[in-house]
Amino acid sequence: MVLPDADATFAPQSPDVARTDGGSWLGHPRQLARLFSIEAWERFGFYGMRGLLVLYLSKFFLLSDHQSNGIVGGYLSLVYLTPLIGGWLADRYLGSKRSVKFGAIVMAFGYFLLCFGGQQARPYATIDGTRYEVIQKQSGSVLDSGDAVQSIDRNGQRLVIHGLPDGSVQLLAADGHVADTIAKGAFGSGADRSPFFVAVMLIALSFVVIGNGFFKPNISTIVGSLYGPGDRRRDAGFTIFYWGINLGSIGGQLVCPFVVQYFGWWAGFLAVSIGLLVAYAMIQFDGGRLAGYGEPPVNEGPDRRVLIYALSIVAAPLVWLIFSNVMDTPEAAAGSGLWGYVVATPFLGKVLFATFLAAVIGIPIWSWKAGSRAEFQMMVAAIILVVFNVTFWTLFEQAASSLTLFADRNTTLELFGIPISAPNTQQFNPITIILFAPVVSWLWLALAKKGWEPSIQVKFGLALILVGLGFVVLASSGSFAGDDFRVSLWWLVLTYFLHSIAELFISPVGLSMITKLSIARVVGMMMGVWFLSISIGEYLAGAAAQAASVQTIGGQVTNPELSLHTYLGTFLTGGELTIGAGILLLALTPVLKRLMHGVS
């Protein structure tokens, strides 16, 4: 997602800010140029690593799809959860500017730790309990290994492993004949990997999550403090700021895969670490340009900076334990039902769901007791839309997991005859946002002049239908797959286009909706619930990607045909369910309209 941060548009005004612009940039306070650049470099790092992560886990550490997708979902859910704490600490103790600097340094350290992955994991296969070393003959780079051939030495023969759609595995001799067929369940795969370097990788992600919690909400707060009350440049200023987000995203997803292909995984993570150091340097050595902005609140008590910094670093092992639990929690047993799924849900998922359930039940009850009848009904409408928001992000955030793996395994990675890598495909989202955000904005203004602009709930419903349609369209690509069971990359381009337009329909509208429907004294808490819904959507996105898991050996699928059908079948199911959710929301429009009391 490359649109506004949690409190971007609605950043509270700092009472202690001295507003002396001393010049302008594009008609805005000149400080906006520096904040634009700082955010661009941070997003360069975040989205550069996001593009690499699932492939790094599956190709270098040779984790299973279930483990890789689970870690990615857990990581992204925490990325949207920790800013709630980081924003609160900044407001109470640190100030936005100190928080941003601390966050940048911690993230840079986390990205730098990712450079130390040790030796690549070594794959093996087990047949009826006997273990065999897997020999890989690869074509291409570490990112695009092409159609790698995996084989084992058995009974003096070199046998190629070929998976079948029913889960069984054939062992093919050099002349192509089937030397043996291994029944489903009798064949297994795994990898020898260093527990130490796996721990380093997880602790590195923990530092990134913690640093992000300090950086993400507070850079936007500083932007908001550039504008005085009633300054009409504010919205346009944030629009320029969002361009920095998207430009940084494009740069990271272009540069990082490139350096990985030519120098190795460590180089990609070093690039994102350098990006964060640049962001830190730009705010630390600002030449006084940001003096008076994002300063800490005036507190009469002791300075708690050192304590907060120390506790944040100490918290990294706790986050590491959460990641370890997400990675090691086994799948629910087949036929175990809802209770089996709940038991198998990692600790992070249990906490997220319990917190969200408490919020969506408790907040309406509180508003019924504390507010008027109209306020209660408006809060109920807001909660309903927040719940539908979870559905949207569950599907949209497949970009970081299943869509990237699908691009790697079952897509012809070529546009206009130019080869690209799987992480590069994530660029289609920010490119579409940059090109079409002004178009969508113009569309709403044009429709508003005619009195035809859709209401909030209609925009939400259309967003759900569009994101679901993106997957339904992609699911239809299977009929056009080649003999190598790969589809044209243009199908993925179309999917990302539909998803990006859907994002423009829901993300900024949702932020506005929260401020319009919430009771004034709890609007901050409701904004937190909104981003909690995104956090849960991110977590569920990882769980949904796990449903598309396929058998791999050495990071490569054993059967491309099975991989294609598994991905497309999962995409179709998710797309149809989400379109259904969008239609349901549109059907509820009359009810929501009454509950919203004229808010649109």
From TrEMBL:
Keywords: Membrane, Peptide transport, Protein transport, Transmembrane, Transmembrane helix, Transport. It is a multi-pass membrane protein. InterPro entries: Dipep/tripep_permease, MFS_trans_sf, POT_fam, PTR2_symporter_CS. It holds the Pfam family PTR2. The chain crosses the membrane at residues 70-90, 102-121, 196-215, 236-260, 266-285, 306-327, 347-366, 378-396, 428-448, 460-482, 488-511, 523-547, 567-588. It is found in: Membrane. It comes from the Bacteria. CDD domains: MFS_DtpA_like. Belongs to the major facilitator superfamily. Proton-dependent oligopeptide transporter (POT/PTR) (TC 2.A.17) family. This is Peptide MFS transporter. It comes from Sphingomonas abietis.
